[in-house]
Design goal:
By secondary structure, the chain is α/β, with parallel strands linked by helices. About 30% of the residues lie in helices and about 25% in strands. The protein contains 14 helices and 24 strands.
């Protein structure tokens, strides 16, 4: 049996923990069944966001009429776009490998627990006093072997499909539909209900829907009844909420219907580790599972499912394991973005959630017209929605829809991080007439709503 100071199962964000521990002289085993770097750089955040630039330029040309400019796209070299994206992905595994010094041994294979402190990989048994599970999630399997999920579209296939049908209504489905349709691949999005981006604040998702349908062909209240694949084509029978059936064909079919726990591969039944009803590993605020010395970080806990959350958790666990600083990590707020056109950024609770919690709150929703830079986009839909606590001016939620929302949101995040009081956003100086200035009237409106509620 091989002995280590630390075993890590899953080389996504936890690769950084392996690298750090190795540099500190710890003997580390890191087990990875696919590529080092995990979901984010190989098949998640990064490749999906590299595609945005292409989509954005194509859309700007298509929509140049809004600025009284007549233009058209001569051609799009989709193969080159795919190739450039794939080039990036192909470098990831070696880049991550280079982060490790001689103290870190990489095992390519599936890690499985033999007992609380023994893990097997490729028939070899490893043990360590500390074991970290960082196995992330996997895409829910597509119901047809020829259909893709977001886990298998990257690296992008050489045979560029002429048409693609995407099933789903979450951010992954929308981001990919945005890209494929922008670059001229015939794209259809199938959404089971009338709601799209159902986790967003309802006002924001309604605006999103109104704008997004202008660019992407969406069938609402529709799902797939039967799937046939022949002559390199999918032949789908679609069914809507009134049981009306229609036929639809496409070259590629992509399921983006959610992600699920990866823990089934771990043989947890050989341990004291407990999972919740969705199969995610239970832990306390120090990332400890029910098995002594075994920790869980990142998506494997099923809590935040975002790269920035997983990365912070890994940094925090490094302090606990390597610096002996046993402090709890509790995120005060969790921001996220939807990198589509329109772009969305969101932090804190939605109005629906505020209602559900039965807490005191007031809301404001303000167009971005006050900023000349925002006006120069000639877009009418951008909005800022605030949900604030009328008792102490705390920002409970902020939701932006408009160009560069994810960048703009950082100003709100800074206030929430330092001293969460909406009045700072009302009183601070803004560069006139930057896009961020659109937050000023939004903060003024939110404070007005608080004052009104107190009369
Ligand atoms: C298409 C897509 C787009 C995304 N976009 C964003 C975004 O814009 N912003 C954002 O914040 N987040 C985004 N995410 C989510 C983000 O990628 C994840 O939150 C993040 O990668 C989680 O990191 P992790 O280390 O917990 O898990 P992962 O990165 O998934 O790493 C887990 C690793 O464990 C390996 N593994 C699993 N089981 C075993 C086993 N038994 N033995 C050995 N190895 C195993 C897997 O192969 C994987 O490499 C996106 C995800 C997807 C799929």
């Amino acid at each position: 049996m091989k002995k280590f100071d630390l075993i890590i199962i899953g080389a996504g964000r936890a690769s950084n923990l392996a690298a750090k521990a190795g540099k500190m002289g710890k003997k580390v085993a890191i087990i990875e069944k696919s590529k080092l770097g995990g979901t984010c750089p190989n098949r998640g955040c990064v490749p999906s966001k590299l595609l945005i630039g292409y989509a954005h330029v194509a859309r700007s040309i298509k929509e140049s009429n809004r600025h009284f400019i007549n233009s058209s796209i001569n051609s799009i070299d989709i193969e080159k776009i795919f190739d450039e994206t794939n080039k990036y992905i192909s470098k990831i595994d070696p880049i991550y490998k280079n982060k490790f010094n001689e103290n870190v041994e990489v095992f390519y294979g599936t890690g499985k627990f033999v007992s609380n402190n023994i893990v097997s990989v490729n028939g070899e048994q490893l043990t360590a006093p500390k074991i970290v599970i960082a196995t992330g999630t996997k895409a829910i399997k597509a119901p047809h072997s020829k259909a893709w999920t977001s886990d298998d579209i990257f690296p992008l296939k050489e045979d560029v499909p002429k048409s693609i049908t995407i099933v789903g209504s979450g951010f992954i489905a929308c981001e990919l539909a945005n890209f494929f349709s922008a670059i001229g691949i015939k794209t259809k999005l199938l959404v089971r209900s009338q709601r799209i981006l159902g986790n967003e604040d309802i006002d924001i998702s309604e605006i999103f829907k109104e704008e997004f349908v202008k660019n992407v062909d969406i069938l609402f209240d529709t799902s797939i009844n039967t799937i046939d694949y022949n002559n390199n084509q999918f032949h789908l029978e679609l069914i809507n909420k009134d049981n009306k059936k229609t036929n639809h064909s496409c070259q590629a079919l992509l399921y983006a219907t959610g992600r699920e726990s990866n823990t089934s591969s771990l043989d947890l039944e050989n341990t004291d580790i407990e999972v919740n009803e969705r199969g995610y590993i239970k832990r306390n605020e120090f990332f400890e599972t029910k098995a002594k010395g075994v920790y869980v970080v990142g998506d494997a806990s099923g809590e935040n499912m975002l790269q920035h959350a997983a990365a912070q958790e890994v940094n925090h666990l490094a302090k606990i394991l390597l610096e002996d600083k046993k402090e709890a990590l509790k995120f005060k707020y969790m921001p996220h973005g939807v990198f589509t056109e329109p772009e969305i950024a969101s932090v804190g609770i939605t109005e629906q959630k505020a209602k559900e919690l039965g807490i005191d709150y007031v809301t404001s929703i303000t167009p971005w017209i006050a900023s000349a830079k925002a006006m120069s986009t000639r877009l009418r839909y951008p909005r800022t929605k605030f949900i604030v606590n009328p008792n102490n001016y705390e920002i409970l939620g902020c939701h932006l829809i408009g160009p560069e929302s994810t960048t703009m949101m950082h100003q709100v995040l800074t206030v929430m991080h330092l001293d969460n009081d909406i009045r700072h956003l009302k009183e601070m100086l803004y560069i006139h007439p930057a896009l961020s200035e659109a937050l000023l009237p939004a903060a003024v409106d939110a404070v007005k709503e608080i004052e009104k509620s107190r009369k």
